[in-house]
Amino acid sequence: MSTSPTDPIADLASRLRRGVLMTSRRLRSQRSADLTEGQYSALAQLDAHGPAAPSDLAARECVSAPSMTRTVGCLADAGLVERAPHPTDGRQVVVAITEQGREALYATRRRRDAWLATQLDGLPPDELEALGRAADILRRIATQ
Fold this sequence. Notes:
Elements: H1 8-28, H2 37-49, H3 54-61, H4 65-77, E1 81-85, E2 93-97, H5 99-120, H6 125-142
Antiparallel strand pairs: 1-2
Helix pairs in contact: 2-5, 3-4
């Protein structure tokens, strides 16, 4: 793939990158709890996949194990996760989301969805349809 300014694929990639990043920043600012993005993401992983060792969470989130240990510590101190002994490895713990953690996660999701719905409200049907297709395509790209 060429990266010249006249390359339509490179131009589209650049425009998409900027648009996705700008939208992501705005969505990240829509938090209902006092959570960092790393804490929110760890809660989302636990909600989606169930209890996990901090090392497994770190691998899923592509962060260092010490960083995830700090994140889990903050979440545990806030009552958003609970630690339990690992069933087969006495040196590890397993972390699970609490009901309070699930509510903080869902409240942030609701707030972000509401902000985005407000932005979408009033767009013409053809743009909404295009965004629907783009959402599916972006999800597919992100999971490849």
